[in-house]
Specification:
The structure is a single chain. The chain is built from 9 helices and 8 strands. The protein is of the alpha/beta class and 248 residues long. The protein has a single domain, classed as 3-Layer(aba) Sandwich (Rossmann fold). Helix 1 crosses helix 9, helix 2 crosses helix 3 and helix 5 packs across helix 6. The two termini are 21 Å apart. 47% of the residues are buried.
Length: 248
């Protein structure tokens, strides 16, 4: 079963969809799935399109409640992307789901994984984090300030063009999300780092660097033949479900 609601996050209205199992007993844990930052033309409105289906599947197979929200500028959510705004958005979603279930974990794809680590590092309510194809070094991933600014515009994650930060400010804002320092603060909370061995956007070395920063206290799952887009990869789904089963 998939419920749909909207949340206010500053001036943004966020779409939130929450799946509960119709096939297995509910286990009393909530997983929040966090989408990434699209890098292709016009993908801002489609970036999280597969996530409600994934949420329903994971909920039915695990018994977890699974929430997935579109952050500012993505999908049906209003507003514009900035790293700080997306941190506020994710905190808003956490506040909402934790009101009914304090046992919350995060699973993030791409930059959403980096963001999940950063938010969890300052929020003790998050009991575990799983990342898939998450960049560990955002300077290498983003390119120059001008390249990042252009990519955000091309992807279409901007509601009002006047709300988009200038290139230097946007880049500095991005650098406040430091996945390496964030993951170092998370053990002994549960951590899973998943990555495709053929990822052409985020090299697999980023996954190994995240595990190293966690002093080896994170599960590393490398998926042969997989690229950057892992959301629909059945091996990723199996990896996530196994982690949730061990994470009860």
């Amino acid at each position: 079963m998939l419920a749909h609601e909207q949340l206010s996050s500053g001036l943004s209205r966020l779409d939130l969809k929450t799946a509960t199992s119709s096939a297995r007993p509910v286990v009393g844990h909530t997983l929040v799935i966090v989408h990434g930052l699209p890098r292709l033309v016009g993908m801002g409105r489609q970036a999280a399109g597969l996530l409600p289906e994934l949420a329903e599947h994971v909920a039915n197979e695990s018994g977890w409640t699974v929430a997935t929200g579109t952050l500012s500028g993505v999908g049906g959510s209003t507003g514009s992307f900035s790293p700080s705004q997306w941190r506020r958005d994710l905190a808003t979603i956490l506040d909402h789901v934790a009101a009914s279930d304090a046992r919350v974990s995060l699973a993030g794809f791409g930059f959403g994984g980096s963001l999940a680590l950063a938010v969890a590092a300052t929020d003790e309510r998050v009991r575990g984090v799983a990342t898939f194809a998450a960049p560990a070094h955002l300077d290498a991933w983003a390119g120059s300030p001008e390249e990042l600014h252009r990519a955000v515009q091309v992807a279409g994650v901007v509601g009002d063009p006047g709300d988009l930060l200038d290139p230097e400010t946007l880049y500095r804002d991005l650098m406040t999300v430091d996945p390496i320092s964030a993951i170092a603060k998370l053990p002994p909370r549960r951590l899973l780092i998943g990555h495709g061995l053929d990822d052409g956007e985020v090299p697999v070395a980023h996954a190994r660097d995240l595990v190293l920063a966690a002093e080896g206290r994170a599960e590393l799952r490398l998926i042969p033949g997989a690229g950057h887009q892992l959301r629909a990869d059945p091996r990723m789904v199996a990896t996530l479900l196994g982690w949730l089963d061990r994470h009860r």
